[in-house]
């Protein structure tokens, strides 16, 4: 019982919704569960909604932060498994934004019983270009420079990176919220997560997928370009891809109605709702 209490507190797990089918929403790098607040209401009637944060974000218990564990995406995947195990949930719908897409994939490969479907929003299995067959969007030198800036001047990094991720320049409040989210995280924890995110290569994991998936690919996404989403779809068995009208990398904030609608349409076709 004590371990269950610790996991709930560690990851600040919250449960809402009046349905029976579990759906878990996992935040992307530098974000917390509040980012889902415009999407989750669409699922309250039909689902048991689980939101949480990775250790180091939001209101999680920092006593549980282990820099070694969280230097790899597998450490974050274990967080997901711990939460689902603690809640005694199986065959959940996992909705992951950005790096959480790969975290969910890793977790589902490690322990498939907890997962029924993966929904990946702006996923990337590798951010680094690997010519001639793979264009991840970044040269390794650019990512090294990004992490170096994080270490030297975290506030400046957040100020520059948030608008690039969010796009939608006509709505500056969105970039401001994302920047505030970045700045609410301890810089040392953020840098460790950034290294795990941007320097991981999970391309070989795609073929190991144990459950079907939906890839939601945004337009004009500077972090996960269209070619990356198409690559995932080609290499991941049981995957579907939907190209969104939403621009940028955070459609659950910028275009929540479209995001929720595409997820619900996908699940409805599968007779999950």
From TrEMBL:
| Gene3D superfamilies named among the record's database cross-references | alpha/beta hydrolase (3.40.50.1820)
Q: Which Pfam families match?
A: Abhydrolase_6
The regions listed as transmembrane in this protein's record are none
Q: Which residues form the AB hydrolase-1 domain?
A: 23-261
Query: Its family?
Result: Belongs to the AB hydrolase superfamily.
Name under which the protein is recorded: Sigma-B regulation protein RsbQ
């Amino acid at each position: 019982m004590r371990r269950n209490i610790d996991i709930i507190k560690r990851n600040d797990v919250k449960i809402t919704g009046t349905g029976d089918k579990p759906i878990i929403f996992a935040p992307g790098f530098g974000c917390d569960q509040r980012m889902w607040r415009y999407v989750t209401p669409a699922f309250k009637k039909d689902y048991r909604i689980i939101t949480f944060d990775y250790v180091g974000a939001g209101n999680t218990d920092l006593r549980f932060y282990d820099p070694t564990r969280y230097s790899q995406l597998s450490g974050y995947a274990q967080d997901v498994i711990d939460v689902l195990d603690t809640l005694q949930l199986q065959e959940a719908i996992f909705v992951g934004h950005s790096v959480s897409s790969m975290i969910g994939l890793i977790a589902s490969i490690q322990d498939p019983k907890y997962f029924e479907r993966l929904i990946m929003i702006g996923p990337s299995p590798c951010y680094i270009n690997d010519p001639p067959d793979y264009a991840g969007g970044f040269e390794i030198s650019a990512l090294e420079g990004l992490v170096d800036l994080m270490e030297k001047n975290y506030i400046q990094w957040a100020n520059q990176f948030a608008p690039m991720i969010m796009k939608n320049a006509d709505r500056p409040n969105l970039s401001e919220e994302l920047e505030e989210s970045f700045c609410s995280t301890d810089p040392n924890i953020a840098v460790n997560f950034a290294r795990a995110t941007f320097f991981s290569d999970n391309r070989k994991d795609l073929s190991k997928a144990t459950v079907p998936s939906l890839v939601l690919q945004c337009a004009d996404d500077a972090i996960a370009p269209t070619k990356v989403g198409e690559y995932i779809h080609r290499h991941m068995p049981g995957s579907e891809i939907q190209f969104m009208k939403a621009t940028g990398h955070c459609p659950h904030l910028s275009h929540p109605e479209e995001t929720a609608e595409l997820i619900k349409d996908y699940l409805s076709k599968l007779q999950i709702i």
